[in-house]
Amino acid sequence: MASIDLNSDLGESFGPWPMGDDVSMLSIVTSANIACGFHAGDPAGILSVLKAAAERGVAVGAHVGYRDLVGFGRRDMDPSSAELVADTIYQIGALQGLATAAGTRVRYVKPHGALYNTIANDARQAADVIAGIRAVDPALVLMALSGAPIVAQARAAGLTVVCEAFADRAYNADGSLVSRRLPGAVIHDPQAVADRMLRLVTEGRITAIDGSEIALEAQSICIHGDTPAAVAIARTLREALSAEGVALQPFVHG
After folding, report:
1. Which of 223, 216, 251, 249 is CA-nearest to residue 108?
2. Which top-rank group of organisms is this from (predicted)?
């Protein structure tokens, strides 16, 4: 039987400013990428989400990003290697402490936003993030963009890498994500998302924004938690996969 992990970016609310419906998403996804305070999230809110994830048996990952609260971590930045390595260590460490208090533990790392997209192809910044992860715990799994150079780079450095696909994002013909600045970059129709992800899981292929067909390796599917239809998309996707006999489970166990 085919199996897949569903992940979502959670813990991104900040004080009185809510971002997404974390509790509802935690009843649907199998892994949660939890903000670490650099691009979003505050300690009390992050701790609350970690406790909710622990109660539901959802695997937890550190959603590390650039130090960019105002830009929500979606602005390109060029920190020095010393900064990026230390920032990666700092964020993982902060989440580890909160996770321990919540009765769970950090199992993987998924970079956020602009950092995620940059390290997909930027070997220097990728090496810095990899070094930061290894300095904390070489057993942590890295979640990365399917088909990107960082996948081989991280595996060569000794990390276990899980490739992910994005349920609600359009793809370019080269396997990269369509820029959010362009029309059609985010897909809002829950059924359309479910149909394309079901095909990805069963056939390993997806239709790019120009109509071409591309092959993608994916052990996890991301549903962004900050889009208006996030919960509906996640629920429709989970139901569609389950109806076809696809097992939904975290990519990390134990």
Report:
1. 251
2. Bacteria
Q: Which residues contact 175 (CB under 8 A, 6 or more apart)?
A: 145, 146, 147, 148, 214, 216
The tens digit of pLDDT for each residue in 179-194 reads 888 999 999 999 999 9
**Class of residue 232 by CB neighbours under 10 A (exposed 0-12, middle 13-18, buried 19+):** middle
**CB of 60 within 8 A of CB of 50?**
yes
The SS3 of residue 169 is strand
The pTM (predicted TM-score) of the whole model is 0.94
Q: Are 132 and 89 in contact (CB under 8 A)?
A: yes
Cβ-in-10-Å burial (0-12, 13-18, 19+) of 172 comes to middle
Domains delineated in the chain: 3-248 (3.20.20.370)
Q: How many CA atoms lie within 13 A of 79 on its CB side?
A: 22
